[in-house]
Amino acid sequence: MAEWWAWARGKLLVDRRLILVYCTVYFTWGMAMNWFGSWAEIAKFTFWWQVITCYILYMVPISLLLRNLPFHTQYAYGLVAMGFLEFGGYGLETSYAYPDNLVDRFFGIRNFSLGMALFFALYFPLGNWAVQRIYRLLFGPGR
């Protein structure tokens, strides 16, 4: 376990500007997705501030751990992470799925959380790619 903590610490100790870019991108992405989920009546957080707990406090550290891994590896680990998040969110009712929503109608009600986890697992490889591009654009390629 000490080995894992040493590895994780090395991945998490990064330039503060990189963390700021992650937080800005993920917060904006989270607010937009929460708005879209409400607007399309698919799903939403019970409270807006859950964007902070889910996207910044949960997803940013996981993204930092997964960055620089191949796309498929980030997606696979992201699927596990999002599976736990989706299961917990709907199980604890901190997330709300609209009845007879688009995902339910297309894939069936029993596949809703799985569909959400499969979709949101893409956030890790896509988020890492986007943050890397923005960070290099703002601060140069040497970082």
UniProtKB/TrEMBL annotation:
Keywords: Membrane, Transmembrane, Transmembrane helix. The chain crosses the membrane at residues 18-36, 48-66, 75-92, 112-131. It comes from the Bacteria. This is Uncharacterized protein. It comes from Pseudozobellia thermophila.
